[in-house]
Fold this protein.
Amino acid sequence: MRTLWRVFALVALPAVLLAVWWFASADSKDFFLPPLSRILNSFDTVWTAQRWRADVLPSVLRLLAGYVAAAILGIAAGTVIGSSRKVRATTEPVLEFLRALPPPVLVPVIMLFAGIGTGMKIAVIISGCVWPVLLNTVEGVRAVDGVLTDTCTVYRVTGARRLFRLTLPAASPQIVTGLRQALSLGIILMVISEMFAASSGLGFTIVQFQRSFAIPGMWSGIILLGLLGVAMSVLFALFERWALAWYLGMRRTGGRE
Amino acid sequence: MSVHTTPPVPEPSTTARRRWPIPYGLAGLAAFALLAEAVPRLGIVPERHLPPFSRIMTALAGELHAPGFWPAVRDTVTAWSAGLGLAATAGVLVGVLIGSVPVLRDLTASTIEFLRPIPSVALIPLAVLLYGTRLPSSLLLIVYASFWPVLLQVLAGIRDIDPVAAATARSYRLGPLARLRYLQWPTTLPYAVTGLRLSASIALVLAVTAELVIGAPGLGKRIATAQISGAVPQMYALIVVTGLLGLAVNLAARAAERRVLHWHQSVRAEPAGAR
């Protein structure tokens, strides 16, 4: 009974919403709000294999490249800054300002340097994603449990072993929080960089549909982008469960406050 | 899939941040300015791509007197505050409603998890078609993006209500209003405030994005105009302004958080790891 209710709860509302959309728009004459059936039909003709290869895949690859680079950069710099009180105090106001910059304003700046090619788009994604990772890493490294640090010092655990056995694991819950914030920012920046200046890519294609008033195509693009966001967040949840298994387990058992 | 929420802790560094030795911070700022001056002057980066810091500051001083600058700031702030206000109100109302009724919470969980990660920029074409470059266009993007953090935090807050406190409230037959005041409000407030702080900076990002990409009036549009007309120092100056605006939003959000939650453990307690 319990499982039945779970399954029902999972699908009931989405099914109702889709049904409402389907029937409410079924004989819609509104040019901007075409029937859902037409949007779904346009998926086949719009998102052809060729378009997947030319637009969708490059977009996703750029997103991944920028995101991974930002993660590495952010964690590395964050560890350095977080480990030293003086470095932290020196960089804090500058970082505070850079973090406050809305990342999309960097698109025109990076266009100056890198033109409008693939490099520009990856640079835009890096420049936006790096801050949440960096700042959360700094916080995580700063707040490593004092007893653990003292223990490591007493046992003379230093260098790389200290980094990989103490600092990074202890900071990992915070780092993962930063990575999660960076992911949604990354998708936004991927789309914006393509809408601003590009000749291919998911964001470009959607804007192109809108400008040429190919409305069902535009809707299908919006849906595809939504599905991409959802897929990314599911993958991230899996990653998080894997990377933080120890931490989540500890919290569940209330091992320690 | 679990609903991700941030525990109701104000930025962990808030208390520690007050303690950073100010001379170090000033030195950092000075070094940053010096670097931004030296890099183009030494020709490491062409000046037409990155003007020296002093030129950007001159352009900034010029912008402050330029016609249309303050109206642009006002437009951006209006869109930001209106969007944030709408999103926060909707988030709190929907959150309290869904959170208080377990059946509703079960029924909506999957839908929320699906809608939340949809990037709000996906709605840009739709916003353009429906509202053109007017304010509702920006509001659509801002509200969609900043609604979710508030909603999720309020839901998490209501789930966090102490069962003993809830049972006590039932035993004393507190009415719905009294329960709201003495049970749900104090537990949920720290969560809601955290959600608001997150939403405040997201709303600014989306406000500027809408202006930059769609062309809604505001600072973002001014940046786009400066870029197209090749006024590079002005463009940098305007970017600095958006950064200062973001800084003001962050600082104000943190100050408000400390004020509203002055009674809460997380604000009163010593910061973790500060030794």
Residues 70 and 130 of chain A are 5 Å apart (CA to CA).
